[in-house]
Amino acid sequence: MSERRTALVTGASGGFGAEFVRRFAAEGFDVVLVARSGAPMEDLAAEVEERHGIQTVVLPKDLAEPHAAADVIGNLEQRSVHVDALVNNAGFSTYGEFAATDLDTTLEMLHVNMLTLTELTRRCLPGMIERRWGRILNLGSIGSFTPAPMTAAYAATKAYVLSLSLALRDELQGTGVTVTALCPGPTETGFQTRAEMAESALIAGRKLPNPVDVADAGYEAMQRGRPYVVTGATSRLFAFGTRFLPRTTVTRLSGRSQRRLG
Predict the structure, then answer these.
(1) pTM over the 0.70 mark
(2) I need a surface site. Which of 116, 148, 177, 257 has the fewest CB within 10 A?
(3) Domains of the chain, with CATH numbers?
């Protein structure tokens, strides 16, 4: 690849990930696209290469695999590609009472949402610090701020993401590297479809925000080095309000918002 800065985006086959790819390409970054589905990434890579004259690498990879992060970084090292900006966007949720959810799926979710994110961040950080510039954007959630019955393990992973992001941001002061957590509420990305959340009171009958607007907010916050950003007026109010209510009360309110309808 060229000497331009390079961005690595996980979950790049659609939703937020695809939007981040477009934003980096428009800013002149070369882009590495990582996700399970190769064909959509190939189409997106061709689109941004033609439109912006940048270079891309497409790496189909299931990030739930134990050595996925090491494989991705190893592949890039063989190509002499270093990562200047990292977007840990890949992730998914389960929906339903914890005791009834599929255990293997839950464990895969924990791996993608936390372990792969952590390993990619750890493997990319030393080079960023050495070059005195880097940007990391981690996908949190409104669930980062409260326990969430019916998506209990998912919300716990996103609490981890926010905590890790804020701690790393503090550690990296003065290095030229920043870490930002993007914490959106429900958005029209296909995320809820995979989680089978159509019957959730949080989703049913609602017109969800467009992922373009959320990606814009996240990209701007990352480039400005903000610690975190919550998108959507209702989500911002909820995240702010959780500071002043007992955690048990907040958990109960969160559970009501996600109960099954019907």
Answers:
(1) yes
(2) 257
(3) 6-257 (3.40.50.720)
